[in-house]
Amino acid sequence: MNGRALLMWDEAVTRYDFGSSHPMDPVRLALTMGLVRAYGLDRQLDVVAAPPAGDSTLRLVHRQDYVDAVRAASADPRAADASYGLGTMDDPAFAGMHEASALIAGQSVAAAEAVWAGEAAHAVNFAGGLHHAMPGGAAGFCVYNDAALAIARLLELGVERVAYVDVDVHHGDGVQAAFWEDPRVLTISLHEHPRQLFPGTGWPEETGADGPGEGSAVNVALPAGTGDEGWLRAFHAVVPELIADFRPQVLVTQHGADTHFEDPLAHLAVSLDAQRAVQEACHSLAHEYVPGAKWVALGGGGYAVVDVVPRSWTHLVGIAGHAPVAPESLIPSSWRDEVFARTRELGPLRMTDGRGVSWRGWEAGYDPADRVDQAVLATRRAVFPLRGLLA
Q1: CB 136 within 8 Å of CB 49
Q2: Residue 108 contacts residue 166 (beta carbons within 8 Å)
Q3: Rg, the chain, Cα only
Q4: In this structure, how many other beta carbons lie within 10 angstroms of the beta carbon of residue 21?
Q5: 14-64 per-position pLDDT tens digit
Q6: Among residues 48, 64, 171, which one has the least CA distance to residue 113?
Q7: Which residues are catalytic?
Q8: Distance CA 84, CA 134 (A)
Q9: The whole model's pTM is what?
C-alpha cells in the first residue's frame, strides 16, 4: 500500500459554471486550490489530473439518453431539455456543460480506482460530491453524480462493501437512489430535516428497498438550527457503530461545507471547527475499520465561497495527506491577496472559527425532549434493528 494521498485537480473543473448569478460559484474551487498551495499541501499529496469520464463510465449510473441530452445542451445551451432538469433555475445550461461535468466525474472515478488498486491510501476530489444528480436528470446544481459513479466503478472492480457517508446539509438523495436496492453499498446521510430543505427526502424511514436492500440506507434528519454539539453528537451516535458493523472495503465520504452557520442556502449552525472534527473522524474510521484505510473524500455543497469553503476543504486535504493544518494558524497573506484580487472581498485571517468542539456521547443516555436526540433515536429505531444492532 502506498501511504501517500492523492489530490485530484485539473484547473478545467472551474469551467463547471452556471453563471454569475448562481450560488455555486466556481471561484470556491480556485480559492480552495490556492489555499492548498499556500500551505504547501500540494507538496504533501500527489496532485493528479484524470481524464473525463467517458460514456461507458457515465452509464454505470446515468441513462444514455440523459448523457445525450447533456451533450446537446453543452453544444447549444438554448437546446436544453427541461424534462431532464437542464436549463432550469437550479441547473442552467452552459456551453461545455458535458465536458466540465464529465471531468469532475472522472476525477472521482480515478480517485476510487487508485485507492482500490493500492496506489494511494486516501484520495480527495473537493470539486466532486455532486450527490443530487439522478440516473435520468440533473438536480440541485448537479449534472453527473460523481459520488455514485465512483462507487459504481468500485463495484464493477469487484469491491463487495462500500460505505458512503454524506455530511452535506442536503440529503444525499442521488447516491441513495443509485444503490437503493444494493446491499453492497451502505449510504449514510446527515442533513437538515426534509421539511425545511431541498430535496425534501432523507426521512429516517427511508432504509432501502424491501428485500436485500433493506437497512442499506441510513438518514439522520436534523432540526434547523442544529449547532456543533448536536451535529457532532448525531454523527458519533450513528456513523461509527454502523461502519464498525459493516466493515467496508472502501469508505467514500462527502463533505459539503453548507452546514456552516454562514451558508446562505440552509439553516444549520455548524462551525468550521466542527466540520474539521468530522473530517478527522472519517479519517480515523478509515484507519480503524477499512483494510488498507482506503478512503475517498469528496467536496459537495457550500455557498459561503470565500470565508468557509476554501478553509473547510483545505482542512480536508491536509487531514487526508497526514499533514493537518492547525486551526489556529494564520492564513498566508498571499492567499488573502488572491481572494481580494478575485472577489474584492477580504479573506479570513485564521483557519478556525474559534470554537472549541465537544459533544456528549450517545452511550451516556438521551433526552427524549431534545430535538436532536429525537432525530438520532428515530434513525436508530428505523435502521439499526434491520442490521442486527440495538437501537
Answers
A1: no
A2: no
A3: 19
A4: 8
A5: 999 999 999 999 999 999 999 999 999 999 999 999 999 999 999 999 999
A6: 48
A7: 132
A8: 10
A9: 0.98
